[in-house]
Amino acid sequence: MPTLLLCSATDDLGELHALFRQEVAQRMPDLQVRLWPDMPDPADVEVVAGWYPPAALLQSLPNLRLVSSIAAGVDHVLGPAQPRPEVPICRIVDPALAAGMAEYVLWAVLYYHRALDQAMQQQTQRRWKIPAQKPAHQTHVGLLGLGALGSHLAKVLRDQGFTVSGWSRSVHAIDGVSTFAGRDALDTFLQAPDIVVCLLPLTDATRHLLNRRFFQTLKPGAAVVHCGRGEHLVVDDLLESLDQQYLRGAVLDVFAQEPLPPASVLWRHPRVVITPHMASSAEPMTIVHQILDNVQRVRNGLPVLHAVDRSAGY
To answer: What average pLDDT score do residues 131-139 get?
Structure first.
């Protein structure tokens, strides 16, 4: 029987599985939904939807017709074990992602802008001292990535009174926001912000971008908020910059290995805040509806929505 296989090597997709089964029963009764590792005959699998599918799975399915991420990111399906070139790959586009990301980043920006990091350190010392406060326009926030999420966030931060700039691969224009484009403009962009927020997709050009040279290009005392992909960050270089007192601190939501291993030194660093990849996520029913809409489009010979350009990496 034609099968949609829901799978992840890192996350529990049980609740999403139940929603898929409910919708498929109404919309596509000829399609069954299975949750990995409950594998059917590999020849039955026409659609794979998930997050970090098991290694080599996508290349082992002879009749695969569609692969969908269950989030905006797709780097987890674009590695050496990606599906055949003729199989379309799509991602989820959800306005709620931008709103959720804006909430998270605004919290992280305020954490440094209102000197809450200093207050937290003082609490461990039982020390009462009011940190210096300043108006929002005196804090400069720089955004790496001005796609749908970054452009929305730039406007939110601008409207909160912060000085905002942004860098991206291609040219963007946003009222009230200074924008930079292209690799040659990156160093100039990095020299001004008090807080740098990474929202970039993972590509060959951005892998390990957050490295020693990157941190040394920032002005002394800058803070980093990382919501892009774990593989952007060179952890040892970050720790070195923190220990040398060059960086003020870092809020990290994404990691090269998730869950972050208990032995990671990041857990114990006093100026690192760790959150478990929670900055934003798509609404579960949005995920189900968009993927099933694309299943129907594939069956009807139509191009999928939110298709990924493999050469660009997103």
So the answer is: 97
Q: Which of 229, 232, 248, 268 is catalytic?
A: 229
d(CA 20, CA 32): 9
257 exposed, middle or buried (CB, 10 Å; 0-12, 13-18, 19+)?
A: exposed
Bond into 37 cis (ω within 30)? yes
Catalytic (active site) residue 152: no
Active site residue 277: yes
Query: Beta strand 272-274 with 32-35: parallel, antiparallel or unpaired?
Result: unpaired
Whether the CB-CB separation of 3 and 47 falls below 8 Å is answered with yes
Cα dihedral across residues 187, 193, 194, 197: positive or negative: negative
pTM for this predicted structure: 0.87
- pLDDT tens string 170-200: 999 999 999 999 999 999 999 999 999 999 9
